[in-house]
Structures
1.
Amino acid sequence: MNVFLDFRDLWLGITSNNDHSLADRFAYVAWSIWHNRNALRLKTPCIPYKKIYAGMQDRVKEFHSAKSSTKLANHDSMVQPIISEPTHWKPPRNPFCKINFDGALFQDQKMASIGVVIRNPGGHVIGALSDRIFLPATVDEVEALACRKAISFALDLGVENVVLEGDSKIIIQALNADSSCASSYGHIIEDIRVLALDFASICFSHVKRREYCC
């Protein structure tokens, strides 16, 4: 029986396992628990805990089915805005990696939480992180900070071609806009744009948050 010292040690153990799908299964279960904690606190629809494992199995099957039917294609544009709203998560086209980011508020603790998951063209998780920050003024600012954290994390991993995917339509539209952002989080948007120049190719995509019913 393996004993892990902390979450980082646990993650290293998972990613070094010969079962390559273990990281995908773990990421979904961990995200589901995190999502439920936020949903219960905010009194919004959540996943029944007893259905998390079955849901994970369905999503993994769904992912592999989508991956097998995905056609590989070249991407000629260095920076190409993409705004789409797929119902289910889809693997990125080769040679892209897909970065999913999200933020959550904890008003009672005056804190916010940031989550990031990065998958390669094969759909395997190559990096994941979560972080807590002091509570910003708005939800949009939390999402902007989560996006900046995600893009910085991808650069640290040495990823060169990325699709940055988030459920904040406001933030994605701000990143795809030709003009500067005059909002309170405008400086964060500009930071992201500067960081984006370090990638060989990058695009920003909006997706709807999947809705769960108890």
2.
Amino acid sequence: MKANPFQSHLLSNMKYMWLFIVSFTMIIIIILNSQVFIFKLWTKDVYSDQIKQRIDLTYWRFNYTDPDDLDDILSLKKPNYLKTYKNPCWHEALYGSHSSNIKFVLRCLPYFYLIGADKCGTTDLFLRLLKHPEIIKTKAYFSKETMWWAWTRFGYSVFTRGLSPTHFLGYLKIFNSAITQIQARNDPEDYHQCIIGDGSPNALWDFTGWNKIPQNHGLTLPKYLTPHCIHHLTPDAKLIIILRNPIDRLFSDFLFVREKHKAFKPSQRVRSRENFHVQVVNATNNLKKCIHKNSLKYCLFNKIFHLDSFLRFEVGFYSVYLKEWFKVFPRNQFYILRSEDYRENMKKHIKNIFKFLNLTKLPESDLNKIKVGKLINTRRKDVKHVKPMFNKTRKLLKDLYQPFNNELAVLLKNDKYRWET
């Protein structure tokens, strides 16, 4: 039976219509997918403009082959810090299972560091600085010490090594609670004025992890130290240092540290001026033996030497360490004071440090409240029975430290740092 000419024409047109519909649908799908792709790229570019940097998921994550591998800080790219934050903060992009699932997390590093020295009044000073409303407390020990730059990132502690290292992310997490407050507190122009600090007093002097910094591998003396690592990430960091007569500092440290660390034998834990004298003699003899074969810097920067001494007398060589910091940071980024001057005029120095940190000026009444109260972390009642050190011990330490005190006075252009009286 012959097909109706009309039916044949209709069937032919339907074929073309279906072909048109399929082609049109495919074109629409292609266009829509292209728009989605373009939109994703556009939104990523917009985010890049907003945060000034596209930070990959691997920004602070290192390729660890072993959990005890150390972070290579000097290989990190310095973040482009947000201009609306006074504190060095940046947005980090975290990607989900799909590339379009982007979550931005605010990360921050300290605006300032109180880097030392131990038993010089760092705790009292730092806790009084925290009373300024623009300095936010962190989850650091005593709201002050992370011990990360000198110790925990290398798996060290006082008189201890071989611990599992704390990685960079662990350091950043210490500041998470403070970051929430920094983020929430802003002025009408959306500028975030609040800051955080790290008050680890061992950062000034303990460079014993230098041989674990990858850029120092194969060297007999370090090329890169803690100052280089901090400067690499926060070159504008403010640095505060409070120093004390190294002789008095050592005796105070002897009474403070010795009582609580299992590294000491029972006989070494005795807190007396007799035991202090014995330990000073041993430590000075060990130093003489070490520098007979090596340089002073090699000995002071050597973890084994620190562990063998059982007395942190190496802290008092202030000029040796300060010269390393001055090689990296300009002098105007330091505020340096003596413990003796801080005790004599606390209000003056706190006021000056607030100015140094570019914080909002406080009324005199607020400054008076901040200086009120006894000094924190001074000698406790259970060691007040210990008599002052022997004169012969003081003379031995004066002979040891005086050349370096003189060097420090020249370095800081202030004869008070000779501690001659």
3.
Amino acid sequence: MGVRGLRSYIQEHRDKFLQDFKLKDTKLVIDGSNLLYFLNSHFEEENIYGGNYDHFNTKCRDFFNTLLKCKILPIVVFDGADDPDNMKLETILKRLDARFSRVKKWKTKEILPILSKPLLYQILDELKVPHIATVYEADKEIAVLASRYECPVVTNDSDFYVYDLKGGSISMACMIEKERMDVNGSFYIPVKLYRREAVLKELFKMENDELIFPVFATLTGNDFFDPSSITLNYPKRPREQMSFARRNIRVVVEYVCRAEFESGQKAYDYICSQLSQAQREQFKYSVDSYLDTKQFTLFDLEAFIANLTHGHSKEISILYERPSTEGNLSLQELSLDEPEKLETEPSSSTDDSASMPRQAHNHRQQDEKYMKILSLEAYHYKIKTETTYHPGLLMRL
């Protein structure tokens, strides 16, 4: 997960890249998938009989109650389905193999009990902590949301060292600290805050360059790009080469520093010129994934969470994607207070569809092409569990 070796590198140079920070009176975006494993692995004891759910429940509530005591509003964002472009398919398969290996070796502390996630959702509901599952992978959505709020992100994913986040990021390990009281009588959690500017200034001498860190991170290796098969020349010493077969972050640091690139754009262009077509596409995809932290991918997550926090519990919000006239994905939102209030489609037809709700009628006309997403039965069923998601569909009831 994330950039290979970057988290360890930051920790080794914590005096330069991390600063003491009093976490209080702020919104806090939390990587839900990271949080789930962290709460289980750090606080959980041996998983006897498939999981100590009482113990897990207590630790989860203690965690969030500490945040609320420090006047911190947590917003938990979980991963959705795997991205449909399959750029991370190889990485996903490797992780599955690793999980199977842990099961075979019976390393119970490294195995997530099967009901941990539903239990965490239930706790978040009871504590009224805003939470949501994105349609696909949550990394970019978390980065955009934190940028909108200008607040920190809590995660163990080293990709967040690369994103341009004004509020910075905090390691999960910092959240085990007990709350303290300052001289004004307010509570806070002492943490180590990471800000990207420190690395840009100290390591690359390019404090305001937004491209150099994504280039460096991609060259180090992440879920989208494997540098182990490439060898690069130096711009000013073309006879000298650097191999990245070992995928060692110190090798990349040495190369970037010795190459003496004038800017991130110069580094980007020079490296791309030495890659094959397939490698170049992967490299560009990876770099681009770090750059856009202004716009959400499919829908406005900030507005959706605002809807949740304002107590619209009786409202169904259905978010789904459909091909637009240009062929690109677009997003529409339906808000339904009561099913019987839905406007019907005027029609002179004697077909049953004449009395159907407008949206259901429209989708029935395209039944072979689009997924039917509107189910009035679901409204009466009143499922109040986790956010459910399907390809092209995000529904919260």
